[in-house]
């Protein structure tokens, strides 16, 4: 048994001072050091240091590791110019992205305290790096393919990748999962089949949805900036689905929808009514000119959401603190403390519930995934710890996964 004490511990009841956790691979008990050292007289005891704050390990639910080679190659500013640049440079970027590079980005996440991430994989190329990672990984096999002619082949390739990720589960840190790329890029017939695969195998399910105004215009009336794009690359000028039809395809299975920046109130209410959740990627949304997620509406409707980095195809780092800071700045209206607390919850317990993992919370029975950060000085009040953590932290001081100290 091990005991770890921090000056502050983030528990389901909020921040608690001078709190100790007894743990092995799972959390055994949360109490004072006095009580727990009497209960476990042989335990190894560790104090995380002055101004330490212990959190459950952070969870980044949405990242594209395959695009890790991008820094200045892709065009930012508007969604369509970005997408055009992805089409142009995709092959080069994928080729430049080897295991070593992906592992270095996985390390970057780890040092920011991320102990679980959701990897969106278009080709399965990052499976090896994910198997070598210290973290838990939800491996989202992405289905993409809008043309009916190629749909079957693309679907079969997707199924093979799903199987490959299921077979590596002797590595119990990898959870196989399904991602639908988007309403504009996945044919409804294979979409339905992929949703069934997720449902029958009880796999987490995710989809990019209503990211840009261009996507909305295209799905609503087959117009706007997507029209010349589809004419040029796919020789078609009609969308394959509608917003409504796409949403309905997920009616019976709670799904993690990424972005939803352009969803209106009615659509958000619909997502809420079906128990769906949102991955919110503020820096990606800003860089691709997509706008701001109405986080206050999302909250009001009780939609669970997670803050996530997206890939380096639309971001400059995979550091979860950089993302939390961006969220704090982007959603500038409303009380700072309340938003900070909500953001911390979004990368811990809410993200864990969304992905269906037994992590994200400091309570007995949960996996022992911890992230310790150290504040530069004593916080003015216990109510400020979430804000101070977000604005002052670049790196975690200690990281534990399944009870093992990794950082
Ligand atoms: O989330 C961002 C922006 N929206 C959509 N797709 C992606 C994002 N980052 C990477 N992608 C990938 C996606 O997985 O880019 C490709 C897909 O493989 C776009 S379609 C040419
Ligand atoms: Fe994405």
From TrEMBL:
One of its GO terms (molecular function) is hydrolase activity. The keyword Acyltransferase does not apply. Keywords: Hydrolase. Pfam families: Amidohydro_1 (PF01979). InterPro entries: Amidohydro-rel, Metal-dep_hydrolase_composite, Metal_Hydrolase, MTA/SAH_deaminase. Signal peptide: none annotated. Residues 54-390 form the Amidohydrolase-related domain. The keyword Hydrolase applies. This is Metal-dependent hydrolase. It comes from Sulfurovum zhangzhouensis. The lineage of its organism: Bacteria, Pseudomonadati, Campylobacterota, Epsilonproteobacteria, Campylobacterales.
